[in-house]
Known about the structure:
single chain
Amino acid sequence: xxxxxxxxxxxxxxxxxxxxxxxxxxxxxxxxxxxxxxxxxxxxxxxxxxxxxxxxxxxxxxxxxxxxxxxxxxxxxxxxxxxxxxxxxxxxxxxxxxxxxxxxxxxxxxxxxxxxxxxxxxxxxxxxxxxxxxxxxxxxxxxxxxxxxxxxxxxxxxxxxxxxxxxxxxxxxxxxxxxxxxxxxxxxxxxxxxxxxxxxxxxxxxxxxxxxxxxxxxxxxxxxxxxxxxxxxxxxxxxxxxxxxxxxxxxxxxxxxxxxxxxxxxxxxxxxxxxxxxxxxxxxxxxxxxxxxxxxx
Length: 297
């Protein structure tokens, strides 16, 4: 039987999820799909029958109904990446393939046939909104972005569209940073240059996949005001930097709460998505039943 384990933003705090992520052990479960996003750490494992509740949970995750930001789009790609990584590294049982292929199909249908994602603000736009709320002069602010990924690329694009002139990109690997920075025409640093770029940074936005924090209290210039936005899970920035006068820090939970406060998803669109999910579960079970009959012949 296919099963799953999940720890997510609905049942744990950010700190508890970080602890679970660091201590998580997949030994002994056999072929499995491991999913890690900003909001959740999940493991799908086993073989044979696919219970409706397992399919329903994964389908809701892919459709963004279980996300902190209802209807957000990024989770579809995150689930796909997790499935492909598992498929390429191990021999998954056929039911696991069917489960994830069906989930990804439902995710596409929900976003094509409903307006569940319409107006859903992304983490990147929420970060820009926070900066504007703090009334910082973007044209003159020195802004450092840490991390090379779609989220940070979107943030750079939005910042430049808002008139930001002094935007810098930092990353552990300089080559990756230069490749992403080139279209934007911005300067790059490595994390080894922290002392240099942190000294005069007015706005710091970090979103890396590092397993441990990369910015700590000793990296902060105590004589310079700083707005820091940490979009990473686990967190990139140590929370105790706020003990320094003039430092303001927003973490992932703060950003998502900001989005929640500004989003209103119509109930009928959620109901449409849930109806498509139930339809998808029925189709999946029909496929599995036909497969059982075939193997029994």
